[in-house]
From TrEMBL:
Family the UniProt entry places it in: Belongs to the disease resistance NB-LRR family.
Record domain NB-ARC: where: 167-339
Parts of the chain that traverse the membrane: none
Protein name: Disease resistance protein RPM1-like
Organism whose genome encodes this protein: Zingiber officinale
Biological process annotations from GO: defense response to bacterium; innate immune response-activating signaling pathway; plant-type hypersensitive response
InterPro entries: Disease_R_plants, LRR_R13L4/SHOC2-like, NB-ARC, RX-like_CC, Rx_N, WHD_DRP
Disease resistance N-terminal domain boundaries: 5-87
Amino acid sequence: MAETALQFVLQKLNYWIVQEQQLLGGLRPAIKDIRDELECIAEFIREADAGEDKDGAKAFMRQLREIAYDIEDHLEDYTLHFGQPQEDRCFGMLRRSLHDLKHWRSWHRMATEIREIKSRVRSISDRRKMYKFRTTNSTASRNILHDRHVAALFMDEAELVGISEPREQIIRWLVEGKSNLQAISVVGMGGLGKTTLVRKVYDDERVKAFFTSHAWISVTQSYTEEVLLRSIISQLYEEIHETLPARIETMGIIQLIPTLRHFLEHKRYIIVFDDIWHIHAWNCFKLALPDDHCGSRVLVTTRIGDVGLHCLEACGHVYQLEPLPPAVAWSLFCKKAFRSLPGAACPPELHVISQEIVRVCEGLPLAIVTLAGLLSKKNSVLEWTTMRDNLHAELANNPKLETIMRILQLSYNDLPHHLKPCFLYFSIFPKERSVELPVSRITLIRLWIAEGFIETDESESMERVATEYLNDLIDRNMVEVAVHYDYGRVKSCRVHDLFHELIVFKSKEENFSTSLIRKGSQIQEKIRRLSTHNISEPLLQGTDLSHLRAIFVFGQNASVISSQANLFSRLKLLKILDLSEAPIESCPFEFGNLPHLRYLSFRNTRIKKLSKSLGKLKNLETLDLKGTYVTELPKTILNLQRLRHLLAYRYYTDDEPPLYHVVGMKLPKGIGAFRELQKLAYLEMDQDGGIIKELGSLTQLKRLAIVKLRREDGANVCSSLEKMKQLKSFSASSSHMGEFLHLEALKSPPPFLERLYFRGPLRSLPSWISSLNSLISLRLRWSRLPENSLGILEALPNLLELVLVHAYVGARLFFHKGGFQRLKVLDLEQLDSLNYVILDGAMPNLQIMYIRSCAQLEMVPQGIEELIHLKELHLFDMPEVFLQRLWRLKGIDHPKVNHIPIVRSYDDQNRVYEI
């Protein structure tokens, strides 16, 4: 993280030196000196920050990190005092002179602080040269990791559970199939048992007999190509009891690669590369592996999905190793913890405690075996209870559990500097929220952008790059996808329970964030990011908050917030303020005290109105009012020219909500000035028509949601949509059942539109929908389309989800052969006149089907038996005659759905029945 903080500051310094020369004035030489000195230290930091043991450099790293943070603070403070709107600068030198005179004290103070920082950087640089800190991993670290690999290689068969199925599958891939060289990659997070599994495959007699040459290489993070190539050659020659080639110890890569290739030619070989971290490692090794179509195989283990796929190139397989299922995890724990007891049975008095500990391990074999082994030596219930209650501290400090954290930390160490702060952001969320309750994907992305973590240029949007960051963390098996939308897009994510322990530990070590979880929580350092979890006592009295960048309030903290309005007056550098779900009814602070705020969330609070001072948040990028009672925003919101995401709506919770289903917001005239706005939801359209025309100026919009669309405004909306070339999601609702959606006038729809949601009656589907080649999801509610009106959808090349709710009044729904080629999800709900659904060879890739409250439908869709990829059929509140035809024993339609793994029926009380 020291490198991360340093790189972030270097980027800012470079920007200021190049772009803000006039603003810096006389401070520019000093800032340039600081930049140059920091760049000299950068290479050392990259090496030291990647090491597991800093060998005495920790204090140095901590000091440098704090300097980097302080520089960032001073730059922000400088911007606050000296930055001016662009139009002010055109008034020439006189305006600049008056401005400098007005802020002379601030300038003088800033100059002093910059000189002090310069002196601190020089001092640290001198100490680094004097002490010559080593940056390589210590012998102890290497031994621990070596012991872990050795233990995995020779684990007793009796201790293994859940390994038979993956072992047999991988063996089949090795000894069967085509004769060309193929690679098999075993991918999964650290501690899942990849090495153990592959060793059992490698040692299997069938594998030994099938291949004539065998070699096993542990790559690890600190490999060198020469050492590993020599090791392979040595194993191969030793296996046939031949003398190694002369001068092998002095050979470089150029000589070692042909030497190995020559040996392997015309042989059926298997080589295991255990624990590959980077693609370039494989790019070197593959040059030494000939393909003579002898049936040779390469077996790779890696934590990184992209590396596993890269190793395949044109041929091979990927085995994604998953955590153990709960029953298997429990069996493994009992085998290890209670091995001295008959049948390895868990004593009744330890049953609940044991289950809680196993639950924390979340199917990770390394953690299960390590914790069970430690607990097997504890005899009393008190000792077990103490271990459970202090697991976080034990993982950090108990040498017998050190292996768990070190294995996970390897993944953290391998992260590039730009991903480390993104990963550590999970430390902010309470464990039960980031582990059990997943974190929204889009929320993470907006927070990372607000923090300034995203490195991009003008050719790519920050949201897209941030999405790539998240996908990289997922690919590295460090972040898990918690919930997908049915059509495949990531909705929310989480981290493994033990990864969360590591994140909290690293966050504390790096002073990344501070969490106040219980009464009396202590704060010792400068706070950069703060989260409070159900704290009801006075907060942070007497604490220096001048460095605070982000504050999150979780739980019922109303008294804390309302009683400390003066708290926010001290947060001059605050960028993020998240008060989601806090039970507050009014804003507890003055917006003008937060000039750097970029992210503001009152989501699901009781706030009804925002003051005019909102316009002072000139740097605000995200304003989240979803779930609040705010229905109109002050005219001063037009000052927020950097606004990117504006959400202000709440869903009706009445038994009979209006057709448009949400309460949106009214905006003042002038919204066309929001040139950076990307998300606008939901805008109420029953207001001045001029605002509707202004929508066309929002050319960066990616999501637009409107409600109460009037017939007379349809043409203007279409005209605006034609100018939104970046739009990916569009939602429109009419105000009542007598108000038709008139959107036929759209001649050139947004080319990248992916999601289209209509709520309200349509005379027919607009013809332009057939041209939406990027459309992924289409949801129609209350459309009342006539029979045979869905034909224009059948040829959409990328449509994955089709939802029809009160959207079709025909008696027969016919899907023609060859239509909906990529559709994965079909949802039919409350189609009251529907008697028959006929598939006739359509939807060949359908995976999930929902049929809900279709009162006249008496049988499953004709042709459902041809849907070989259908995995789930969910039936909600369907007629008795429909369900009787599906019963397992007597239903005449049951054979049609017998190939579907999950067939479930839900009654009107949401009770579930397996069919």
